[in-house]
């Protein structure tokens, strides 16, 4: 079930994303390494999110790490997805299974159950924007659900992920 304020048809969603990205009128930059975007329903934050996603130049990007806070599932760790693809109404995003396996091998991550993954909207709201921005480009996503991590674990996860930046 989509988050409140989310369009219900693919064409309406694509039109809204196109409109917001166009209105943001940002220049695409190859220097963008990270974005921080809101994850409320699009009627609340879609326009704002366009300013986060609108300057991404997808030309030389092959992998996107998608970190979202856990709203309904408690874990003191970060959790990885078991999904192989994240589907959106405007296109699918394959999960980078190689990186998921590398992160799993560290022993520092857990896996989300599929129902936890499907219920969490913090990452879901970014997927259509990613699908739109990366249309026509080969990109994979690495979804990571961020739990109630303490500062020591924040630093540890930062070190584990730093090699990919």
TrEMBL record:
InterPro entries membership: MEMO1_fam (IPR002737)
Similarity comment: Belongs to the MEMO1 family.
NCBIfam families for this protein: AmmeMemoSam_B (TIGR04336)
Name this polypeptide is given: Protein MEMO1
Species assigned in the record: Aegilops tauschii subsp. strangulata (Goatgrass)
